[in-house]
Amino acid sequence: MTNEQICDRLKGLLARHDAKCLFAVESGSRAWGFESANSDYDVRFVYWMPVEWYLSIETRRDVIEEIGDDDLDFAGWDLRKALLLAKKSNPSLHDWLATHESYYEDAELFPEFKQLCLDFFDPQACFHHFRSMATGNYADFRDTPTLPFKKYFYVMRSLLCARFIFDHQKPAPCRFGDLLDEYYPSGDVRDEIEHMLEIKRSGVELAPMPRNQVLHPEIERLFQITSEPPGKRTVIPTVPLNVFFRKVVGYSWPGIMDR
User: Fold this and answer.
1) Which of 89, 118, 193, 259 is 20 to 30 A distant from 81 in Cα terms?
2) Which residue pairs from 87-91 have beta carbons closer than 8 angstroms and sit at least 24 positions apart in sequence?
3) How many CA atoms lie within 13 A of 127 on its CB side?
4) What are phi and psi of 53, to 5 degrees?
């Protein structure tokens, strides 16, 4: 699947909904850097609608989704929904903004949106999210003799994201490799992960394996050193989010505001 094919499909999807795109990125395993040969393409985007769509007494669906039969999975949030989630420092939104796999960015509006999201970043909320994800995934195999080895990647990435947020007070990198460079530039843990990544990328997605004698103890250590969360962000007025929302919806549909 090429980027051009993905962008063409996205354009068609947006056109059918009369929506405009703020940005679109790859998410999930392909963005994190531990995809298999048969991994889906998880396209995530934020869009906005004509101003009249927002000026309705009816409750409108604020997501656009399409799952194809060709490994393409589209899911987008309406701008108002995205800004409300930015106010709450939504971890998935920060993950989308950190990805290097971009399909589209509005040259004028996207930089402002991204900065707003960074301004509202809450280290404590995102830390708890990633550590909770690690706990849930680890519970599936903590005491089992065998497991699908991709589970190690999900647990390790989540714990390293939590550690990075605590250490740096900013969103964690999207790429697993960047987190490995930060905390395991060399050594047994890095060598073991790189070996497993090579196997996964070759197409072995769910093959069970015995408990890994290098990674299992390291995961236990990471849980210990991420036991304390960072401090909570101070409350920030929502005025900048409202200003941006009105700016995008108002000026982007010429003539409608004059009706």
Assistant:
1) 259
2) 87/120, 87/238, 87/241, 88/122, 88/125, 89/120, 89/121, 89/122, 89/125, 89/126, 89/233, 91/125, 91/126, 91/129, 91/130
3) 21
4) -65, -35
Residues 6+ apart with CB under 8 A from 8: none
Predicted structure pTM score: 0.90
Secondary structure class of 210 (helix, strand, coil): strand
Burial class (CB in 10 A: 0-12, 13-18, 19+), 108: exposed
Amino acid at the residue 162: A
Residue with tokens 């795109």: 21
CATH number among 3.30.70.920, 3.30.460.10, 1.10.10.60, 3.40.50.1100, domain 3-120+236-258: 3.30.460.10
DSSP secondary structure, 7-26, as one string: HHHHHHHHHHTT-EEEEEEE
Question: 3-state class of 95 per DSSP?
Answer: helix
Q: With contact defined as beta carbons under 8 Å apart, do 46 and 79 qualify?
A: yes
C-alpha dihedral sign at 176, 39, 133, 101: positive
Contacts of 101 (CB under 8 A, 6+ apart): 25, 26, 30, 31
Q: What is the pLDDT of residues 44-99, one digit of tens each?
A: 999 999 999 998 888 899 999 999 777 899 999 999 999 999 999 999 999 999 99
Give me the residues paired with residue 146 across strands.
Answer: 210
